[in-house]
């Protein structure tokens, strides 16, 4: 497993990379690919969220479930797709809420690196998936790794916003200290968005909290690509 992530993450996560569970996870991924299975995202992009957003820069954490399992979609940031790839339904609903909340028009693409570079940690609970099989790498060790990432952000005294969308993400809420802001709602998937995601106003709440604590705000408007 090629590890490409920001240098500032290496020290807090070294214990995880050296752990037996991570060795087991590496072996599992090597075996799956040797068997001809397609794994997403590409190896070089699996830690992309941690490469673009160093720990001291994290202002908002958005937690996804696992990477998109379609051809050419996943590139290491939750909910994001590469330029030129059709915007997935969940991200369309995120854009709808962004429009309702901050009157920001959808950008016409699904590439969210602009958010990541401003301190929005776009982290999936699992960092790999098999082609066409959602949640196919659940329980293989990634959850333990991403728990460690969240624990490190949580341990910081810098007030941070955690957007926990859907039941899988909300399971992390118990780990989060009270000086952070936790915003919980249903998942933006078309199957659930009308049950509380629409109208939740996460973007304006996040920016109000960040401003209050002297951490600026996120420019949620995405530039053209």
UniProtKB/TrEMBL annotation:
Task: Extract the SUPFAM superfamilies matched here.
Answer: Uracil-DNA glycosylase-like (SSF52141)
The record's active-site residues are 66 (proton acceptor)
Keyword match Lyase: no
Query: Main EC class of this protein?
Result: hydrolase
GO CC annotation terms, alphabetical: cytoplasm
Q: Which residues form the Uracil-DNA glycosylase-like domain?
A: 51-210
Q: What SMART domains has UniProt attached to this entry?
A: UDG (SM00986), UreE_C (SM00987)
Example GO biological process term? base-excision repair, AP site formation via deaminated base removal
Please state the protein's primary subcellular location.
Answer: cytoplasm
EC number(s) of the enzyme? 3.2.2.27
Q: Which reaction does it catalyse?
A: Hydrolyzes single-stranded DNA or mismatched double-stranded DNA and polynucleotides, releasing free uracil
Instruction: State a single Gene Ontology molecular function.
Output: uracil DNA N-glycosylase activity
Q: Alphabetically list the UniProt keywords.
A: Cytoplasm, DNA damage, DNA repair, Hydrolase
Compartments in which it is found: Cytoplasm
Its biological purpose is as follows: Excises uracil residues from the DNA which can arise as a result of misincorporation of dUMP residues by DNA polymerase or due to deamination of cytosine.
Q: Which NCBIfam families match?
A: PRK05254.1-1, PRK05254.1-2, PRK05254.1-4, PRK05254.1-5, ung
Instruction: Give the protein family.
Output: Belongs to the uracil-DNA glycosylase (UDG) superfamily. UNG family.
Any idea what this protein is called?
Uracil-DNA glycosylase
Which species is listed as the source? Answer: Sphingomonas turrisvirgatae
Q: Which gene encodes it?
A: ung
